[in-house]
Amino acid sequence: MVPSPLALFLVLGAAATVLAEPLRFVDCGSIDGSIQEVNVSPCPTQPCQLHKGTSYSINVTFASKIESQGSKARVYGEMLHVDVPFPIPEPDGCKSGIQCPIQKGHSYSYLNKLPVKSEYPSIKLIVKWELVDDQDQMLFCWKIPVQITS
């Protein structure tokens, strides 16, 4: 018997849900928005084990408190209280699941990738992810502990 496409979709959806448990995060200054949920997939336990040469899916559900024409992501690895910029493939929030212009009172799902390059050192650090509006104010800012591993 061949499984139906719907059955496959449901099984894959259930598997993805298991891998994308909502994370415990620290809000580090969301002024113009409020974070409802942060997911990093796969990250079944915290601190997230980020394997070199792998890309991780980021999904942040947030509500905007303002209107903005656009948004831009900034990602950092925080080590010894110093923010080291962490490049991501697409910093434009309007190309990352958010329908722009952003409207006050609406909820959005921000989707992006976090590539962990092979040349990164094996280290424990804090990932800090910011999304700013067109006035450079924080739509959201969250932090989670991670460990980069081989």
TrEMBL record:
Keywords: Disulfide bond, Secreted, Signal. Residues 25-146 form the MD-2-related lipid-recognition domain. Residues 1-20 form the signal peptide. One of its GO terms (molecular function) is cholesterol binding. Gene3D superfamilies: 2.60.40.770. One of its GO terms (biological process) is cholesterol efflux. It is found in: Secreted. Pfam families: E1_DerP2_DerF2. Belongs to the NPC2 family. This is NPC intracellular cholesterol transporter 2. It comes from Trogon melanurus (Black-tailed trogon).
